Amino acid sequence: MAEYNKKKTIVIGHKNPDTDSVCSAICYAALKRKVTGEDYEAARAGHVNEETQFVLNYFGVEKPVRVRDVRTQVRDIDIRQVPGVNRSISLKKAWNIMQRDSLVTLPVVAEDESLEGLITVSDIAGTYLDVLDSSILSKACTSYRNIIETLEGILVTGDENAYFSEGKVLIAAANPDMMEYYISKNDLVILGNRYESQLCAIEMEAACIIVCEGARVSMTIEKLAREHGCTVITTPYDAYTAARLINQSMPIGYFMRSDHLITFLETDIVDEIKDVMANKRHRDFPIVDQDGKYKGMISRRNLLGARGKSVILVDHNERSQAVDGIENARILEIIDHHRLGPIETIGPVYFRNQPLGCTATIVYQMYQEAGVPVEKQTAGLLCSAILSDTLLFKSPTCTETDRAAARKLAEIAGISAEEYAMEMFSAGSNFASKTEEDILYQDFKLFTAGKISLGVGQINSLNTQELQELETRMLPYLKSERRSRGLDMIFLMLTNILTESTVLLCDGQGAEQMIRNAFQMEADDASESNRVELAGVVSRKKQLVPAIMVALQE
C-alpha cells in the first residue's frame, strides 16, 4: 500500500482572497519546498476573483486547491497501515496474520481496493466454539487450495483451484461395508491408508478423499480417482488432527461482517467521530476514501495523539479573516503586512510582519535572504501582487521597498509594470456579469472594535461609469447582507484607481455619520444618503480602517 498519511504544511491566505493572498501563498510554499525539501502546499480559503485569475492565466499557473476548513481530519492522524486481505484466504491464514502482526481486526478488500468486510479474532474464535454441521465446508465453498494449505498437504490428483461446494465432511472409521451406508455423492472423506476404504469412497463418488499420516497413494487409486473426478490429497496429520483442522480452511468471506460496517472517510473531522467511536465496542475502525477504497485502520488510541494540520498564514493574522477551523490548526508561521489582530497560537511561531504595501514584497525579500533565485514565473506572480495591493504604487501603503521590488520583479518577468497593471485591473473590473454577492466578497474583510462588528469590502476600477452604476446596485444588497450576517456596520469602497479617490457606501446605525466624523467632514444635507466621497482615500488598510477604529473608540 502506498504511503497514505504523508504530512504536509498548508500555506494559505485569508478568506475572500485577493491577488496578494493567492500569489504570496504560491510563491512562499515554493520557497519553503526549495529550502527545506519538505512538503508545502499553497491553498486558498475562498473563490479566486477575476483579477487574480488573469494573473494566474497570464503566467501559466494553476490556482491553488481550495481549503474550506483546517480542523483535524482523519487523514491528519497516524493511521495504522494494516494490509487488506482477500476474502478467499483461509481462517487459519487470517489467524496467523493476526498473531504475527498483533491485530484483532483484518480488513477484507476486493481487487479494486474497495472494502468488502471485516473479520475479527472473535469471529474466528467463534468458528471453533460453535457447533457447525458437517456440510459447513461446502456451504462456505472452500477451495482445495485452502484445504491443502491448512492441512500442509500434497495434491495427488485434481485441481487445486477448484472448490468443494457440495456434500459433507466425514471420517471413514468403519469398514468398507459400513461406509457404503453413510458416504454420499460429493462428500469429502478423511481416511487412512487402507486401500479398501479409499476404493470404496471413490466408487461412492466422493468429491475428495484426504489420506492421513502421509500414507502413499497407490497408482491404482490415483488412476481410479482421476477417472471418477475425485480429488486426492495426502496430509502428514492423523485423522483426528486433520478433522480438527479442516474447518480452518474455510474462506473468511463466509464469516466476515459486511453489513452495517462503521467506517470513516479520510476527510471526516476527528472531533465529529469521537462520539461514534466511544459508543461502539469495536477496537479498530476502517478508513476509506470517497470512492470506498480502503486506506487503513484507526483506533481510539490513535485519536489521543491527534495533531492539527500544520498551517502557515500569509497576508493576514486575524482569526476573523482566517480559514475556518484555524483554532484547531498548528500555526507554524505568519507572514503579513497588516495590523496585528487577536489570533492565538498553541506555541511560539515565526512571525514576520513589516510595514510594507504588500506581503509579496516580504516574500521576495525572503527569497533573497535564502539565496534562492527568483524564476520568471515566480517573479510575475510576486510583481502582480505588489502592483495590485499598491494600486500601481498609488496607495499610501506603498513604500520605496515595494517600488524597487516590483521594478526588479517586472524585469525578471519580462513585463512593463504600468502596461501590465492596466491589463490586470481591467480584467478584475468587469462587474456587469457578476452578482452583488460576487462583487461584495471579491475583496471583503471582517473587523471588530470592542463590541462592534463590521465588514469592509473594496472594489478597484479604472472605469468611472462602471463604479457609478455599482452604487445603485450595491446599496440595497449591503443593507440585506448586513442584517443576514448580524453585523453592526458594513462598508463597500468603490475605488477609482485613475482619480485616486473612493466613494464609500455605508449601512448600519450611525455608519455614515461615523465616517464623516472620522474624516472630519460636514454632515451631508441629504441625511442618511449612505454614501460618502473620500478624495485621496484608496487604501482600506492604511486609510479607512484605522480611521474607523479611532472613531469607534472615541
- Indicate the percent of residues in helices: 25-40%
The third-level CATH topology of the largest domain is inorganic pyrophosphatase (n-terminal core)
The end-to-end span amounts to 63 Å
Give the overall shape, derived from the CA principal axes. elongated
Provide the number of structural domains. Answer: 4
Q: Count helical runs.
A: 20
Q: Specify the CATH class of the largest domain.
A: Alpha Beta
Order the strands across the largest sheet as they lie in space.
Answer: 3-2-1-16-17-18
Q: Largest beta sheet, briefly?
A: 6 strands, parallel
User: What is the mean pLDDT?
Assistant: 90
What is the assigned CATH homologous superfamily of the largest domain? inorganic pyrophosphatase (n-terminal core)
Cα-atom Rg, whole angstroms? 37 Å
